[in-house]
UniProtKB/TrEMBL annotation:
The lineage of its organism: Eukaryota, Metazoa, Ecdysozoa, Arthropoda, Hexapoda. GO terms for molecular function: SNAP receptor activity; SNARE binding. The keyword Coiled coil applies. The chain crosses the membrane at residues 92-111. The gene is LOC113202930. This is Vesicle transport through interaction with t-SNAREs homolog 1B. It comes from Frankliniella occidentalis (Western flower thrips). GO terms for biological process: Golgi to vacuole transport; intra-Golgi vesicle-mediated transport; macroautophagy; protein transport; regulation of protein localization to plasma membrane; retrograde transport, endosome to Golgi; vesicle fusion with Golgi apparatus. It is found in: Membrane. Pfam families: V-SNARE_C (PF12352).
């Protein structure tokens, strides 16, 4: 007796296998895409790390140049202060020389014109 409502197990089994194979193929493609993205991301990360290393070296060199410039400015400031002190002391010496010359000149004028000859 053939039962009209019987299930064709072979057909169902083939359909399930095809569906499973399709799902596996899509999953494999998704994994392949994910792997490719991970590889590209790793390459980009490596490039970024390399560029950051170069920028770090650039910043370190710039920092060293700034420190060297600061040291040179400090030395220049010390030299300028010494020069300013030298200028002030030279002016004081010049004033003293002028005062001594004026005193000598005044003494000579006094001796020549105002001192009574004996």
């Amino acid at each position: 007796m053939a039962w009209s409502g019987s299930i064709n197990w072979d057909s169902e089994h083939e359909t399930t296998i095809r569906n499973t194979q399709g799902t596996l193929a899509r999953a494999s493609q998704s994994i392949a895409r994910s792997t490719q993205i991970a590889v590209e991301t790793e390459q980009i990360g490596t490039e970024v790390v390399g560029k950051l290393g170069q920028q770090r070296e650039t910043l370190l060199r710039a920092r060293q140049r700034v420190a060297d410039t600061d040291a040179e400015l400090n030395r220049a400031d010390a030299i300028m202060r010494k020069m300013a002190c030298a200028v002030v002391s030279n002016k004081l010496i010049l004033i003293l020389i002028i005062l001594m010359e004026a005193a000598i000149l005044a003494a000579l004028v006094y001796l020549k014109f105002f001192k009574k000859s004996d």
